[in-house]
């Protein structure tokens, strides 16, 4: 990815931010803003997941652990210490996630491929079980309710802009990382770890770093979510949450930085629209997914690129973000 | 389903959230059918205070976060007057939060977590079905009487490992103590919700040799447990006791002849009790509409719609939430599950519907096919004895 | 713990292990041969159960016929799914991810199709008359049906061994796990082999669905519920290792069974704990696939 596509990433980010910034102004109902907030949170979750999966080639099936950790740090702080602890709780969640990812990373990055995937699943599920069973502290599967951000952030529009700013800054940071020399190394790790080793770069250390970074932003997404819905639930730790973010990323296109974000937006909107008009949502979403898999071999983003290429008349194959 | 069809009419919009898929799908399906039945009846008689009732339903997928999103859409886009429904207590707890924030009345028709009408009560929440505490209080009284005719000492509990399973045994223990019943717990077993294989739990329970096995399952888990336990002879050696959801009709119909006789069960509504004209009429109408007999959850939805209609009649419009709250508090009305001489009412302090509980024993009965066993030999418990006492609510806060 | 209780609990664990293995065996077979991860494997299990219900409870056919037919029904649908859809994404970049996405869409579609055909009520399937009741000797009780399940599990192990080692199709299947190009050069129709293997695997799942139905309830949503446990078995056994899966299922079944006795409160934790510990110490699973020399 050269300098030109870096500016592309920034450009897309700025346009995206502007569009999302207009939502509270242009919305006709509060619900539209809620939906936009969900897209932002899941978009952040999906992009940080993709730093692991799409960029470095580490398919984690346990990122829900960090998502839940972020949410529960906020929720439990507010529950036990009061609303003023909302933001300190969010910070705590991020720190905890980084710490856990560092510790766990030492254990699980030793293995690769599907074994890495299964270990992340196992630890994610262990985390879920602990939160689920620790009724006296976490409230178990009843979840935690009444998590309202303090002061002016109790205003939904104010909170929305805070959310937008934090998501925007995180995406910008990850976009920079993606385009940096470290991003290049990560992509090499994905393609050929042996060669990275020959070049004198430490594969495991880089994997460990990206695992921490990804987990930290995932925790931020979880923390932000607790202020959107005002209630959290142990489902956030469950493997289906990890699965959801995997689906979003693949559907959007894991080869491109914004692919997972687009996937998140599409899945959230489809789930909502289809769920509202039929109880047979599962059949319809399944068929849509099936059609997309067969029709768009590089995800939605790949499809868009192909269209762009066709309209530009270049006939050239679309650039695929540092992939051979 | 769309507002435009009703544009010329005054409408009370009810935003329902029921699961329509997965394990709890049967409860959602039956609830929606019964709610629609009630709406047809009310609208045929001219509606409530000149308003027609209208129901919209979305599959909540039994997921709290999704349900919250849908509820917010209902309030902001669909402009519903009431939130309605919910099978899962976790979803109920998340929604009561939305109801509180948005000051929209939420009528709970099924979910049983006691805290919704106790420590988590907020002004806009009402529940028209009974909670687990009421079931367990009745259960404790049943066990107390049983001790006089058939002395027993030991209890083992098996229930799904989540809030509902834990609440039941905790509340049963509290009530046994409250009514001065002596007992000894010889084992508590916590398989996961939707566990497929109970064999090791069953052999473990049998080793503990309890006089009474208290069960806290619902739906398919009960079916699986009973099927797997029967050949081991568990039901001959111990009394199987399941006072909240054990006698659900979907279970009686799924088990057929393989349901052992003599199990002590209950549900939040029974198709064959009470033997009143109103209950018979309700069951027959449901059967005519859907071709099947209703499971317990349907009656809650049916009653819930009537509660809304009554409240709107009293207030004159469906928009003044605070006036509607006042109208609902203390409201009395006759329900299919009320025996002769009793009228259910909403307790103004807890917003909980106060109902009579009946516990029965499985016996052959082919009046409601495909079930070949139904409950009988009823024992009836007075509504007033079953509400959580103040000290219990205080302790929980 | 007295001896008879120990044996009873051991047998309980064995019943559980057999079901775990029967469901996971198909999953590991597909993975071993075609490196395909079928997330919808549990949905074929569910389809088998519903087909068995239809035949046995609605149309009044015998249990054994339903068992076979349920397997065939799921197997044919599995072959169709592979032939029409999965085949089209083989060899694509990020194939693994697309496999998950595609097979996940199968779960969603099958769930609703089942709901359309059979509704959401719980369905039941009766045990055959000969398998009702229990064997009992000196304090040890085991239901006849559970014995039959365990024996059928063993029969599947033997049959699979015979198929993989003694038949031409089995040898081709094993070979295609190693070098597809070479097989194709040798004139073997590799894609058809894959379709066949997929069919056998889903048929196994469907048959297991019928076998489990008299002990469980036939409900919607069952597909997604069994998949994680099967996944654990497959990985613990060493991916694609048929015998490994059998031993892993035994381990998990017995660990669970005794966890219920000793730590009933935490029993649900053990599957994940066993997997985490095993993979930490033996990252390739208990029984890593044999590295085969290339000639």
Automatic annotation (TrEMBL), chain A:
<feature type="transmembrane region" description="Helical">
    <location>
        <begin position="111"/>
        <end position="131"/>
    </location>
</feature>
<feature type="transmembrane region" description="Helical">
    <location>
        <begin position="210"/>
        <end position="232"/>
    </location>
</feature>
<keyword id="KW-0812">Transmembrane</keyword>
<feature type="transmembrane region" description="Helical">
    <location>
        <begin position="33"/>
        <end position="60"/>
    </location>
</feature>
<keyword id="KW-0472">Membrane</keyword>
<feature type="transmembrane region" description="Helical">
    <location>
        <begin position="80"/>
        <end position="104"/>
    </location>
</feature>
<dbReference type="Pfam" id="PF02653">
    <property type="entry name" value="BPD_transp_2"/>
</dbReference>
<protein>
    <recommendedName>
        <fullName>Branched-chain amino acid ABC transporter permease</fullName>
    </recommendedName>
</protein>
<dbReference type="GO" id="GO:0015658">
    <property type="term" value="F:branched-chain amino acid transmembrane transporter activity"/>
</dbReference>
<dbReference type="InterPro" id="IPR001851">
    <property type="entry name" value="ABC_transp_permease"/>
</dbReference>
<feature type="transmembrane region" description="Helical">
    <location>
        <begin position="280"/>
        <end position="300"/>
    </location>
</feature>
<feature type="transmembrane region" description="Helical">
    <location>
        <begin position="244"/>
        <end position="268"/>
    </location>
</feature>
<keyword id="KW-1133">Transmembrane helix</keyword>
<feature type="transmembrane region" description="Helical">
    <location>
        <begin position="158"/>
        <end position="177"/>
    </location>
</feature>
<keyword id="KW-1003">Cell membrane</keyword>
<feature type="transmembrane region" description="Helical">
    <location>
        <begin position="6"/>
        <end position="26"/>
    </location>
</feature>
<dbReference type="GO" id="GO:0005886">
    <property type="term" value="C:plasma membrane"/>
</dbReference>
<dbReference type="InterPro" id="IPR043428">
    <property type="entry name" value="LivM-like"/>
</dbReference>
UniProtKB/TrEMBL annotation, chain C:
<dbReference type="GO" id="GO:0006865">
    <property type="term" value="P:amino acid transport"/>
</dbReference>
<feature type="transmembrane region" description="Helical">
    <location>
        <begin position="62"/>
        <end position="86"/>
    </location>
</feature>
<feature type="transmembrane region" description="Helical">
    <location>
        <begin position="145"/>
        <end position="164"/>
    </location>
</feature>
<feature type="transmembrane region" description="Helical">
    <location>
        <begin position="231"/>
        <end position="252"/>
    </location>
</feature>
<feature type="transmembrane region" description="Helical">
    <location>
        <begin position="6"/>
        <end position="29"/>
    </location>
</feature>
<keyword id="KW-1133">Transmembrane helix</keyword>
<feature type="transmembrane region" description="Helical">
    <location>
        <begin position="185"/>
        <end position="211"/>
    </location>
</feature>
<dbReference type="GO" id="GO:0005886">
    <property type="term" value="C:plasma membrane"/>
</dbReference>
<dbReference type="InterPro" id="IPR001851">
    <property type="entry name" value="ABC_transp_permease"/>
</dbReference>
<keyword id="KW-0813">Transport</keyword>
<dbReference type="InterPro" id="IPR052157">
    <property type="entry name" value="BCAA_transport_permease"/>
</dbReference>
<dbReference type="Pfam" id="PF02653">
    <property type="entry name" value="BPD_transp_2"/>
</dbReference>
<keyword id="KW-0812">Transmembrane</keyword>
<feature type="transmembrane region" description="Helical">
    <location>
        <begin position="36"/>
        <end position="56"/>
    </location>
</feature>
<keyword id="KW-0472">Membrane</keyword>
<keyword id="KW-0029">Amino-acid transport</keyword>
<feature type="transmembrane region" description="Helical">
    <location>
        <begin position="259"/>
        <end position="281"/>
    </location>
</feature>
<protein>
    <submittedName>
        <fullName>High-affinity branched-chain amino acid transport system permease protein LivH</fullName>
    </submittedName>
</protein>
<keyword id="KW-1003">Cell membrane</keyword>
<dbReference type="GO" id="GO:0022857">
    <property type="term" value="F:transmembrane transporter activity"/>
</dbReference>
<comment type="similarity">
    <text>Belongs to the binding-protein-dependent transport system permease family. LivHM subfamily.</text>
</comment>
<feature type="transmembrane region" description="Helical">
    <location>
        <begin position="98"/>
        <end position="118"/>
    </location>
</feature>
């Amino acid at each position: 990815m050269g300098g030109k596509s870096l500016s592309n990433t920034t450009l897309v980010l700025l346009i995206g931010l502007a569009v999302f910034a207009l939502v509270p102004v242009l919305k006709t109902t509060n619900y539209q803003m809620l939906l936009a907030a969900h897209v932002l949170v899941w978009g952040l979750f999906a992009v940080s997941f993709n730093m692991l999966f799409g960029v470095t080639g580490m398919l984690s099936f346990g990122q829900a652990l960090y998502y839940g950790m972020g949410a529960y740090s906020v929720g439990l702080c507010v529950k036990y210490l009061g609303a003023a602890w909302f933001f300190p709780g969010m910070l705590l969640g991020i720190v905890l996630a980084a710490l856990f990812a560092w510790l766990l990373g030492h254990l699980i990055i030793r293995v690769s491929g599907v074994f890495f995937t299964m270990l992340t699943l196992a630890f994610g599920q262990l985390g879920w079980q602990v939160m689920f069973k620790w009724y006296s502290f976490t409230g178990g599967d009843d979840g935690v309710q009444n998590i309202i951000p303090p002061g002016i952030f109790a205003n939904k529009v104010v909170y929305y802009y805070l959310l937008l700013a934090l998501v925007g800054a995180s995406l910008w940071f990850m976009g920079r990382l993606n385009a940096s020399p470290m991003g290049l190394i990560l992509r090499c790790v994905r393609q050929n770890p042996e060669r990275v080793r020959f070049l004198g770069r430490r594969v495991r250390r880089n994997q460990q770093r990206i695992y921490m970074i990804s987990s930290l932003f995932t925790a931020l997404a979880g923390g932000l979510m607790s202020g959107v819905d005002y209630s959290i639930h142990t489902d956030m730790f469950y493997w289906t949450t990890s699965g959801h973010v995997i689906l979003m990323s693949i559907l959007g296109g894991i080869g491109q930085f914004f692919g997972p974000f687009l996937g998140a937006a599409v899945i959230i909107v489809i789930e909502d629209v289809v769920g509202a008009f039929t109880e047979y949502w599962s059949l319809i979403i399944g068929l849509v997914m099936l059609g997309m898999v067969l029709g768009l071999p590089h995800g939605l983003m790949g499809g868009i690129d192909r269209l762009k290429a066709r309209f530009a008349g270049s006939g050239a194959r679309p650039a695929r973000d540092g992939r051979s | 389903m769309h507002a435009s069809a009703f544009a010329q009419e005054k409408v009370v919009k009810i935003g329902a959230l029921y699961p329509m898929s997965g394990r709890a799908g049967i409860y959602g399906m039956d609830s929606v059918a019964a709610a629609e039945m009630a709406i047809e009846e009310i609208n045929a008689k001219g509606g409530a205070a000149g308003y027609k009732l209208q129901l919209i339903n979305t599959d909540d997928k039994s997921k709290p976060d999704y349900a919250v999103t849908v509820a917010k859409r209902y309030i902001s886009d669909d402009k519903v007057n009431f939130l309605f429904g919910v099978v899962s207590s976790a979803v109920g707890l998340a929604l009561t939060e939305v109801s509180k924030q948005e000051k929209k009345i939420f009528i709970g028709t099924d979910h049983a977590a006691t805290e919704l009408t106790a420590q988590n009560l907020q002004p806009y929440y009402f529940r028209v079905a009974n909670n687990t505490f009421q079931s367990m209080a009745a259960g404790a009284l049943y066990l107390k009487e049983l001790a006089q005719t058939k002395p027993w000492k030991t209890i083992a509990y098996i229930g799904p490992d989540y809030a509902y399973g834990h609440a039941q045994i905790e509340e049963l223990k509290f009530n046994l103590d409250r009514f001065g019943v002596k007992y000894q717990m010889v084992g508590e077993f916590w398989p996961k919700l939707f566990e497929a294989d109970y064999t090791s739990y069953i052999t473990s329970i049998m080793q503990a040799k309890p006089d009474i096995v208290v069960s806290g399952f619902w739906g398919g888990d009960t079916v699986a447990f009973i099927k797997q336990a029967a050949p081991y002879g568990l039901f001959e050696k111990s009394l199987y006791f399941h006072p909240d959801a054990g006698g659900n009709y979907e279970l009686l119909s799924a088990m057929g002849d393989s349901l052992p006789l003599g199990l002590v069960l209950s549900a939040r509504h029974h198709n064959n009790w009470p033997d009143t004209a109103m209950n018979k009429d309700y069951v027959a109408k449901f059967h005519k509409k859907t071709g099947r007999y209703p499971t317990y959850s349907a009656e809650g939805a049916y009653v819930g719609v009537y509660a809304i209609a009554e409240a709107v009649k009293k207030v004159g419009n469906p928009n003044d939430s605070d006036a509607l709250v006042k109208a609902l508090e203390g409201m009395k009305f006759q329900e299919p599950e009320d025996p002769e001489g009793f009228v259910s009412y909403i307790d103004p302090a807890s917003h909980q519907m106060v109902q009579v509980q009946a516990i029965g024993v499985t016996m052959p009965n082919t009046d409601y096919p495909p079930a070949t066993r139904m409950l009988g030999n009823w024992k009836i418990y007075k509504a007033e004895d079953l509400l959580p006492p103040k000290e219990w609510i205080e302790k929980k806060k | 713990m007295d001896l008879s209780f120990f044996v009873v609990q051991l047998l309980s664990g064995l019943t559980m292990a057999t079901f775990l293995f029967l469901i996971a065996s198909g999953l590991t077979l597909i993975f071993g041969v075609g490196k395909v991860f079928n997330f919808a494997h549990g949905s074929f299990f569910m389809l088998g159960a519903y087909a068995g219900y239809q035949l046995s409870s609605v149309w009044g056919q015998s249990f054994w016929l339903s068992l076979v037919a349920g397997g065939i029904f799921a197997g044919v649908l599995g072959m169709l799914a592979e032939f029409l859809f999965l085949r089209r994404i083989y060899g694509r970049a990020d194939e693994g991810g697309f496999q998950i996405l595609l097979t996940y869409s199968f779960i969603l579609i099958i769930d609703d199709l089942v709901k359309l055909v059979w509704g959401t009520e719980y369905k039941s399937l009766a045990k055959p008359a000969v398998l009702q009741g229990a064997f009992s000797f000196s304090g040890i009780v085991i239901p006849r049906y559970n014995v039959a399940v365990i024996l059928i599990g063993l029969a599947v192990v033997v049959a699979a061994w015979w198929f993989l080692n003694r038949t031409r199709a089995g040898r081709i299947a094993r070979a295609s796990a190693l070098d597809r190009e070479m097989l194709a050069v040798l004139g073997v129709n590799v894609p058809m082999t894959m379709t066949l293997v997929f069919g056998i695997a889903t048929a196994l799942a469907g048959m297991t669905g019928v076998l489990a139905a008299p002990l469980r309830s036939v409900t919607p949503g069952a597909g997604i519920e069994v998949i994680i446990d099967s996944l654990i078995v497959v990985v613990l056994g060493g991916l694609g290792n048929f015998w490994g899966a059998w031993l892993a299922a035994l381990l998990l079944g017995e660990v669970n069974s005794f966890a219920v006795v000793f730590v009933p409160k935490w029993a649900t934790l053990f599957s994940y704990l066993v997997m985490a510990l095993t993979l930490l110490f033996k990252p390739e699973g208990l029984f890593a696939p044999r590295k085969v020399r290339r000639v």
